[in-house]
Amino acid sequence: MVDSPKEGKWARAPDFTQLTDMASESVGGQILFATDDFFAPAENLIKSDSPSFKEHEYTEFGKWMDGWETRRKRIPGHDWCIIRLGVQGIIRGFDVDISYFTGDYAPQMSIQAACFEEDKQPEIPARGIRMGAAASPEEFEAIAELKSDDWDYLVPMTELKPGRPASSHNYFPVNSQQRWTHIRLNIFPDGGIARLRVYGTGQKDWTASDSKEPSDLVTIAYGGVCVGFSNTHFGHPNNMIGVGPAKSMADGWETARRLDRPPILENDENGILLVPGCEWAVFRLAHPGVITQIEIDTKYFKGNYPDSCKLDGCILTTLEEEDMIRQKWDLPGHKWKPLLPVTKLSPNKSHLFDSLTLELQDVITHVRFTISPDGGVSRLRLKGFPSSICLLRPREKPMMRFSVKAGFRANL
C-alpha cells in the first residue's frame, strides 16, 4: 500500500523534480499501449523536451498538439496508456503537465504501477508512429496479459488543475519504497496531457547479477546519482551517468570557462596544462563495490573537452554524505583513494583505463571526478563488482538539496 498524495498544485516545483525522469524517451522509456491516439500520439508524453505550441499548425485529424490527445469519447469507458519505464526503481513523484491544453485537457486522471521481472514480461507488439487511430482488438488482447486493471494505485483519481497556458504542472509525491517497472496512466474520460514525468531513482536487483561479469556501478539506471558539483553552466553531471550513449553535447556535463586561467597557457613535462583551478562532481555509487575499469567519453566535445581529468574514491556512510553535502564536499584529502591519476584527455573520444585499486579490499561508495581546467564530458562509466558491504541505510526521503550555484568555483 502507498499513501495517497496531496493536492496536485504546488507553489514551486517540489524537490523530487531534481531526480531522474524514469519514463523519458531519453533513458529508454517506451509507450506499450494506448486506447486512442486520434489527435496526438501517447509517445509525446515521454519526450525529454518541454511541450511547445504552434498556433496555426493543423494535421489531417485536427489541431497539432505536443502531447497525448484522444478523441472526444462517444462510447463507454475512458482512455489509458501503458508506459514501460526506461529506468526501473523507486518512484518519488509525478508531474502531470497539461501545458497548452487549455480547453481540452483531461479533467481527471489516476496512475497505477506494477513491477515485472525481466524474464516474465509478455511480448507486446511494437506500436509504430500513429495518429487518427484507436487500439485494435488484437492490441487490447495482447495488453490484457499485463492485467493492468489490478495494478497498485500510486495516485488515485484526481482532478487536474490548469495553470498558465505555457506552464501548467500538477505535482504528486509518492510515498512508496517498492520497485516499479511499468506505469498505467488513466485519463477520465478523455482529453489531452502534454507530458508525464516520473521522478525517482533506479534500483537494480543485485542478487540476480552475474558475479563474474562487471556492472556499471555508477549508472543512473541502477541508482547512481550526483550528490555534489562545482559548476553546471551548460549541463548537469547526472547526464554523464545516463542510459545509453550520449546523443549530443546537451546530453553531457559541461562547465563554464574558468575565469582564473592564465593569459598565456603552458604545459608541464607530461603535456598537462598548468592551471590553478578545476571543476568536479561527486557521485554516490548505485552499490558499494570495487571499480576495475573506467570509461571517460568526450564524444561531441571537440573544441570544449577538458585538458585532463582524475578520479578518486572513498567510503562514506549516509550521515557522512549528508555532512559533506552541507560542507560542499570539503572532504580531507587523505579520505580519497586514487582510482585514476591525472590523465590527459582527447576530443570526441572514448578513453578506457584500468583502475589503480583492483584489490578486493578497495571497496568504495562515492567517487569524485575532477576535470581541468573546465569543459565537457559526455559519459562516465565505472565498471566493477558490487560488494556485500553496505554502509548506506535506506532513506525514507532522499537528500536532494545538494545544488551548488553554477558560478561557484572550488579547487580540490
UniProtKB/TrEMBL annotation:
Regions annotated as coiled coil: none
Domain Allantoicase: 28-201, 223-385
MF annotations from Gene Ontology: allantoicase activity
An example Gene Ontology biological process: allantoin catabolic process
Taxonomy, superkingdom: Eukaryota
InterPro entries: Allantoicase, Allantoicase_dom, Galactose-bd-like_sf
Family in the record: Belongs to the allantoicase family.
Function (record text): The function of this enzyme is unclear as allantoicase activity is not known to exist in mammals.
NCBIfam families to which the protein is assigned, alphabetical: allantoicase
Name of the protein described by the UniProt record: Probable inactive allantoicase
Source species: Equus asinus
Gene name per UniProt: ALLC
